[in-house]
Amino acid sequence: xxxxxxxxxxxxxxxxxxxxxxxxxxxxHRKAEKETLxxxxxxxxxxxxxxxxxxxxxxxxxxxxxxxxxxxxxxxxLQSKVHHGKNGVYVFDVxxxxxxxxxxxxxGWSEKEIAPSPSERIRLEGIIRTPSPxxxxxxxxxxxxxxxxDLQALSRDLNAPLLPFYLVATHSYDAKILPTPPLPTxxxxxxxYAITWYFLAFTLLVMFLWNRKSFLKRKTSDGSDxxx
Length: 228
Known about the structure:
The chain is an alpha/beta fold and 228 residues long. The protein has helices spanning 2-45, 151-158, 190-222, and strands at residues 50-51, 63-83, 86-97, 102-110, 122-129, 162-169. Strands 2-3-4-6-5 form a 5-stranded mixed barrel. The longest helix has 44 residues, at 2-45.
């Protein structure tokens, strides 16, 4: 009976060791992905800004500029955005370029929903971003409440064929709207996480072998005969 219990415990222990090793390996994959992303951001931000009207292909995080104007009445707000501990919204407006393209622009963060957008013709500058898919914890978008960017749905809601990316502007054109960082702030601690998971797997293995050794010593000293 005891050996049967020990066998079950052994299977569970080895299973947990495999899980911990898998988590460590996954963290190493995440480390490589994060390093590639950081390298891409570093490369893109050093490029000169391109004019959206003459853009044939686009790369996320690359600088962009556009000449044109914001379209009145086409403002949306991304809900539940925190800035310096305060809850508020991200302000988005549709910008029409000289060639008639429609670009969704994140102008910045505001404590409350405000309007209108600037009416004069301006040169707009910022960084190209592509929308991230919603997480499991984000509510569904229900017009006029938006929690994440869906460019196809927004094209229908705003009655404007939006470009397949949006722009995080470096200037909000409104003192009540605080510009948001155009590039994500990323940290890469995945190596430390991987080491932690591997260390836990090693510790669990050592503990198991130590207990196994102690059990075999007791069995030998007792002279008992355990049958499986």
